[in-house]
Design goal:
The chain is mainly alpha-helical. The chain has helices at about 1-10, 10-25, 30-45, 65-80, 85-100, 100-125, 150-165, 170-185, 185-210, 230-250, 255-270, 275-285; strands spanning about 145, 225.
Length: about 290
């Protein structure tokens, strides 16, 4: 768990924030290839942030990256007070203008195409290092113990499905998750499911003990889980959307509702848990 958090708050988070900054400011002028290349460059610049095969061929640069390599020295010279993030923004702005005249950017696209051919040619001869694969689940092992929430989920799902015909499975799970959130700290409401979970835990432990025939096997109780839905997140997004939609509409009056929705989703994903929590509180106050 800790290693994942470290990675998320490191290189991946930096590249995500930079790319989203450019997307929000310059719209669709950055292609997916440009975004992938930017992410790769940021990752390479932070040594030790991830394990990388030194023998793997370097991915081909996009036309935008070649443009940045050529233009960055001059932009840095002309704007010595700008931070690195602002330099990237300035380069994106210049690229957007340059693309208005295809002749001005043709050389960059030609270089990108040549590099793409080089990359694919080298990849044909590349053999990635062997990696450990997760073993398949032994069908002879006992079924994992169920959690109290899973017993609650199985108990409530048929009624929820019947009451909400045509509702997507993910939305059904969200509804059940909301109900569980309301009662999970009330013993009188959850005792039934907690006792079922404890009983199933004992069943699983006994069955695992019986598996210890081929040698010493450490018995560790594994609990089968269904992910509990973060209802606070959904409530927070509703308040966030109402507040930000007007601002985005004012900034981009020609944008369609679908485009605005995508921008809102992208901005929401960039917020940390504290910021989302504030919007969730705002949403709850509005419903009272």
């Amino acid at each position: 768990m800790s290693s994942k958090m470290t990675r998320k708050n490191g290189t991946d988070e930096v590249s995500k924030n930079v790319i989203n900054f450019l997307k929000n400011r310059f719209g669709s002028s950055l292609t997916k290839t440009d975004q992938n290349q930017l992410q790769s460059m940021i990752g390479d610049s932070q040594a030790g942030s991830r394990t990388k095969d030194p023998n793997k061929p370097k991915r081909g640069n996009s036309a935008y990256i070649y443009f940045c390599e050529d233009s960055r020295p001059q932009v840095t010279k002309d704007h010595p007070d700008l931070e690195a993030k602002q330099i990237i923004g300035k380069l994106a702005e210049l690229w957007k203008k340059a693309k208005l005249n295809p002749d001005d950017v043709k050389r960059f696209y030609d270089r990108a195409e040549k590099d793409k051919v080089r990359y694919h040619s080298e990849m044909k001869d590349y053999t990635p290092p062997a990696t450990a694969k997760r073993g398949k689940k032994d069908p002879g092992l006992p079924k994992k113990a169920k959690s109290a929430y899973l017993f609650f989920y199985e108990d409530k799902r048929p009624g929820i499905v019947e009451a909400n015909p045509g509702t997507k499975a993910t939305d059904i799970t969200r509804i059940i998750g909301a109900q569980w959130t309301k009662i999970k700290d009330i013993p009188s409401e959850t005792d039934k499911y907690v006792k079922l979970a404890e009983k199933d835990k004992i069943r699983y432990t006994k069955e695992m003990q019986s598996v210890k025939k081929a040698g010493d096997v450490t018995v560790e109780v594994e609990v089968e889980e269904v992910e509990e839905v973060d209802v606070t997140k959904d409530e927070g997004y509703e308040a966030f959307s109402k507040k930000m939609k007007k601002a985005l509409k004012a900034k981009e009056p020609d944008a369609s509702d679908g485009e605005i929705a995508k921008r809102l989703s992208s901005l929401w994903k960039d917020l940390d848990s504290d910021a989302r929590g504030k919007f969730a509180k705002t949403s709850k106050k509005g419903k009272k």
